[in-house]
Amino acid sequence: MNSIDLNADLGEGMGADDDLLEVVSSASIACGGHAGDAPTIRRILKTCKARGVRAGAHPGYADRERFGRFRLVMPLDQLLGQIRSQLFLVHHLAEEADVSLEYVKLHGALANQTAEELALAVGIYASIQTMNRRMAVMALDNSEQVRAAKALGMPLIREAYADRAYSAEGLLLSRTTDGAVIHEPEVVIGRCLRLARRGEIVAVDGTILQSAARSICLHGDTPGAVDLARDIRRALEAEGIEIAPAAPEVEGSPLPLA
After folding, report:
1. Is 22 a domain residue?
2. CATH number of the domain that 139 lies in?
3. Other beta carbons less than 10 A from residue 258's beta carbon
4. Which residue in 9, 43, 59, 232 is deepest, having the highest Cβ count within 10 Å?
5. How many structural domains are present in the chain?
6. Does any domain span residue 35?
């Protein structure tokens, strides 16, 4: 049976975590940088364990005021320190809850920046790799994130976005651009089905992008997010597509989950 992973960014204070954890197969948990705190992380980890949802870390710029969605200028060592601090916290809480933390997915502006800048992506991923060599990277497919992960030999989960518009180059449009976030449920569902069945994403200019992504991000901070997530899952399952965590790949080969 064909399968695809549904992931959501959780622990960001949107109030929909428990409901989304009934729908998704992977949870990217805010680590206290752009959002999140120890009690929230602990609660989500325990729910992941109880419901069989794969847990991942979701670090970003430590900028709560702007939700990590603005690019900050700082020395690389300072940025790496922020990322390591967030990962130390979520790793500690995962060990406490006896939950395996399977992957890391960068948040917001830092995710967009590393999708464009190979050197930055390599620097950040290499720092993460020194902390946990088995941790996979969830990366925007066809971006510099993928190239960085492959260069470092890190397990890789290729990701696509259901509700974000793409440029012809395969990158996400900035949220400051009109139409960057897609709100029409039928359009979002259609995009998910096309990706799952044909490996295609249509860019904003009509370019058809080929994608090997097997994880779809469902944002929890948009109006009607939970209902949309449920509708997406129902539509995929109605087409015979199983919802399940995507196995990471290493150098093109599947890597079984631990």
Report:
1. yes
2. 3.20.20.370
3. 8
4. 59
5. 1
6. yes
